[in-house]
Amino acid sequence: MTVAAGNQSRGEIAPGTRDDDAASATLASVELEVAQLLRRAERTHASGEPTGARRTGLDRSGYLLLHALGTHGPQHINALAARLGLDASTVTRQVVALEKAGRVRRTRDPDDGRAVVVEPTEGGLLQLTEHRSARADLYSDVLRDWSRLDRALLAELLARLNEGLDDYRRRRDTD
Amino acid sequence: MTVAAGNQSRGEIAPGTRDDDAASATLASVELEVAQLLRRAERTHASGEPTGARRTGLDRSGYLLLHALGTHGPQHINALAARLGLDASTVTRQVVALEKAGRVRRTRDPDDGRAVVVEPTEGGLLQLTEHRSARADLYSDVLRDWSRLDRALLAELLARLNEGLDDYRRRRDTD
DNA sequence: GGTAACACCTTGTAAGATACACCCATGACG
DNA sequence: CGTCATGGGTGTATCTTACAAGGTGTTACC
């Protein structure tokens, strides 16, 4: 599915026009909403909420890490760090935590004694699934008044926003 | 502006149908994207990025707090806490930090000796504006390939998602 | 008015996520 | 071999937040 992708009046020739104002109002609004979303979702994700972290025992970091492992298979710490856009030291700690909880396994790479292969356990994958489903239920409640179309739009736009942020980051890092 | 609000085929009578699967896939996707967004935006917001917090000296908490003050005027700590969905102790600390930075003023409420009125300073409001504009520039870069329409859609859907999360929270708290 | 209950804010303490700067072990190459 | 690069782990620091407990001012009620 692709959201209306044309329609852009490029070439904003005259700065300070009404159009320009509207455009920057939109951007400001996106920015503000994202900032607020961070706060809200953080709290919904983290502590407050018995359906989430506590019950399934997966916090956001663990969830995303397991997701990466589930989707892209066993990987080295550095690969995970790159994929998740995190510092390797952070990933190390997260992996250690997950290992303690029995959700991943850590083994030395036989082909490279420096490297560590991180691999999800059965239990880890199971918990990932459970967590995902619990979270989906939650969002089903949060979005209960939304139309199918709007939900799909939201998913799509969020995905694109994430891509945009990734690209932005890469651009800045490459400088 | 309102996004397509109808179209929902309610009454999901037969669980396990294809429609149902699609719906829960959408939810799962929203959930995952939000989780990822948190991570990304957090980092874009916080440290990594010289255009943001460091340069304007406003972190996310301060930004949202000042925004609340700018939009709704001087308020008590508790009112802010309620509005921001935070614990009062957290707001106290944030206000103290902003006060140290000269961005808000704290005075005893003459009508109620227990309460503290928090009020933005000139400089605080100025910095809020600057920050907002810097952030808008950032998002203008992040969303540079997006059509006007899609940006507006994103803003709208994010706003609704935030509302949804708020409502959800209220529902749970009221239980 | 006096006391008890309540409201508002602050401080103490703790937890999670993350980064950066270092350090150690291993591998690669001359 | 010896030097440099690479992969990971540790020490430390920051930021954000919550819950619990305490101080001080208000209100309500006898």
Give a concise summary.
The first copy, chain A, is mainly alpha-helical and 175 residues long. Chain A is built from seven helices and three strands; from the N terminus they run H-H-H-E-H-H-E-E-H-H. Chain A folds into two domains: 40-142, Arc Repressor Mutant, subunit A; 147-175.
Report what the structure shows.
Chains A, B: Residues 1-10 have a biased composition (Polar residues). Chains A, B: It comes from Cellulosimicrobium arenosum. Chains A, B: Pfam families: MarR. Chains A, B: This is MarR family transcriptional regulator. Two copies of one chain form a homodimer. Chain A is mostly helical and 175 residues long. The first copy, chain A, has two domains: 40-142, Winged helix-like DNA-binding domain superfamily/Winged helix DNA-binding domain (Arc Repressor Mutant, subunit A); 147-175. Chain A has seven helices and three strands, in the order αααβααββαα. The longest helix of chain A is centred in the first third of the chain and has 28 residues, at 18-45. The first copy, chain A, binds a DNA duplex (30 and 30 nucleotides) through helix 1, helix 5 and strand 3.
Radius of gyration of chain A: 20 Å
What is the tally of beta strands of chain A?
A: 3
Tally the helices of chain A.
Answer: 7
Oligomer category: homodimer
CATH architecture term of the largest domain in chain A: Orthogonal Bundle
The low-confidence parts of chain A are 1-12, 46-55
Provide the CATH top-level class of the largest domain in chain A: Mainly Alpha
Structural class of chain A: mainly alpha
Helical percent range of chain A?
A: 55-70%
What is the mean pLDDT of chain A? Answer: 82
SSE pattern of chain A, N- to C-terminal:
HHHEHHEEHH
- From the spread of the alpha carbons, the general shape of chain A counts as globular
From the 3D structure, determine the CATH topology of the largest domain in chain A: Arc Repressor Mutant, subunit A
Beta percentage of chain A is 5-15%
CATH superfamily name of the largest domain in chain A? Answer: Winged helix-like DNA-binding domain superfamily/Winged helix DNA-binding domain
Q: How many structural domains in the coordinates of chain A?
A: 2
In whole angstroms, the N-to-C terminal distance of chain A is: 33 Å
Biased composition (Polar residues) (chains A, B): 1-10
Region (Disordered) (chains A, B): 1-25
InterPro entries (chains A, B): HTH_MarR-typ, MarR/SlyA-like, WH-like_DNA-bd_sf, WH_DNA-bd_sf
Pfam families (chains A, B): MarR (PF01047)
